[in-house]
Amino acid sequence: MKALFKACFAIPFTAAFLSFHLPASADVGVVNVDLRNARVLQNIANHLSVNISNIPITVQVPISVAANVCDVDIAILTTAFNKGGATCFAQSSSTALNKIVQRVINLQTQF
């Protein structure tokens, strides 16, 4: 009985502790990032050592990655996502974006 009593108190405190340490902007969804910026395309192609024609036009990335490469506030993208979807135009590339693009390219070449 004591164990059950302790568990009833431990679970809410553990959940509160874990949620406190999660960033408020945790990636709750994905954003469609348009990669048609010529400079961004060239940077990604150079980094991945692929032809620009192999880079997809859009990729879905976590909100934090999109905010970074599109130079848009996370709150704006989160609001758009919550209203049904978010899209932005990449203004720069990043390591995270490059990794996602590489995964998409790898998936495309498998089929």
Structural class: mainly alpha
Number of domains: 1
What string, H for helix and E for strand, traces the elements in order?
Answer: HEHEHHEH
Number of helices: 5
Strand order of the largest sheet: 2-1-3
Q: State the helical fraction.
A: 55-70%
What percentage of amino acids are in beta strands?
A: 5-15%
Question: What is the global morphology?
Answer: globular
Please tell me the overall pLDDT: 81
How does the major sheet shape up? 3 strands, mixed
Unreliable segments (pLDDT under 50, ≥5 consecutive)?
3-27
First-to-last CA distance: 57 Å
Quaternary structure type: single chain
What descriptive keywords fit this protein?
mainly alpha, 111 residues, globular
Structure description:
By secondary structure, this protein is mainly alpha-helical. It has one domain. It has five helices and three strands; from the N terminus they run αβαβααβα. It is globular, with a radius of gyration of 19 Å. The termini are far apart. The N terminus is likely disordered.
Walk me through the topology.
Layout: H1 2-21, E1 30-34, H2 38-48, E2 58-62, H3 63-70, H4 74-82, E3 87-89, H5 95-110
Parallel strand pairs: 1-3
Antiparallel strand pairs: 1-2
In short:
The chain is mainly alpha-helical and 111 residues long.
